[in-house]
Amino acid sequence: MKPVDSFLLILLAAGAIQGLIYGFILLKKNAKNKSANLFLATILFFFSYRLIVEICKLFGYGFYDFWYHVFIEFNWIYGALIYFFVKASVTPKFKINFKKDWIHFLPVFIEFLWSNFIKSQNFYWDGTQESLSWLGYYGYIVWMHYPTMFIISGLLIIFYAYKSSQILKQKRDEHLIYIDKVQWIKRVLFVLKYYAIFLIVVVLVDVLFFDYAFRKYYSYPLFIGMAIVTYWLGLEGFNRRNNDVIKTQNILPDKEKQQLEQIAKALKKLMEEDEIYTNSDLNLAILSEKLNVKPYQTTKCLNVIFGKKFNDFVNEYRIKALKDILKNPKNEKFTLLSLAFDVGFNSKSSFNRAVKKITGKSPKDLKSSN
């Protein structure tokens, strides 16, 4: 075996072994995110399987021999698995509904049937085009002599990465997930999407401009990339397997959710149009009275719809108003504290604490940033 092949073997094996080990760890029944972990483990298993197939080819297995018919193609399953992994991550007690969800696995079924049909043509091939049917001959050409499977696999990953991003956006807008806890999922989608784009661009450039002549030169880095992604994905999944992503307290009956959304709408009006935050005596009771609701309803609205506590919610408006005031040169003659009092702060200490907590900076930095 050539040194470059030995190096490739080590990298592919590391990715495959990592994927298998962490895949089995994620299958533990006592994990918090059981459904999401199951789909992530399945992704790792299929990535590892693909890497193992490539390892076998380095040893000469799988080229029109017995193993050629044993190695089954599953390149079109990654996109659907990514989609269901994300969906399960942000959906309480998620269960796949095969009556509705079977369509997502249709490409996998088509690839399985088609690839095995193409492989079966070797039993009839005698070296002449006439020994095969029209479909068998041209199907073989399209499947084996062009990067068809890679392009479709990449497009499916891009499509499902987009659908998954839309799910995260919807859940975020509905305040049903912890934004910081899904950042790693966004990273996964980002990496897989751009890996797929890179794959498609490379194979298209080769087939369109070089008649698919350089496949062996870039197949190495492509599968090295898959090994790296598998290795990294296993580590990420292991470290985040018990993350509390879903705000279970925000899963409300439709009637109660609509009620809180109405309160939120009125609350934004009080803040943005009436500027009630400028009242230095503003508290939960006064705000609730203005909204004509009970204080506990205001608190629940703040927690569920805005994901914030009363003081933080109000102080964010005050600091934003203060920043706007500081942009006006006419206000340079006033002290920062006097302007802070104008937007509703009632003491220097509360102002300092609020600025530090919300902006992460000291109050004096407010002036320098405007």
Brief synopsis:
With 370 residues, this protein is mainly alpha-helical. The protein has 17 helices and no strands.
| Total E-strand runs | 0
Report the uncertain regions: none
Radius of gyration: 29 Å
What string gives the helices and strands in order? HHHHHHHHHHHHHHHHH
Helix content: 55-70%
Q: What is the 3D shape?
A: elongated
Major beta sheet summary: none
Which descriptors apply to this entry?
370 residues; mainly alpha; 17 helices
What would you say this structure looks like, in words?
This protein is mainly α and 370 residues long. Helices cover 69% and strands 0% of the residues. The protein has helices at 3-26, 34-58, 66-70, 78-89, 98-101, 106-120, 134-144, 148-173, 183-209, 215-239, 254-272, 284-291, 295-306, 310-326, 336-342, 348-359, 364-368. Helix 2 (34-58) runs antiparallel to helix 4 (78-89), helix 4 runs parallel beside helix 8 (148-173) and helix 8 packs antiparallel against helix 9 (183-209). The longest helix is centred in the middle third of the chain and has 27 residues, at 183-209. The termini are far apart. The model has no long low-confidence stretch (mean pLDDT 87).
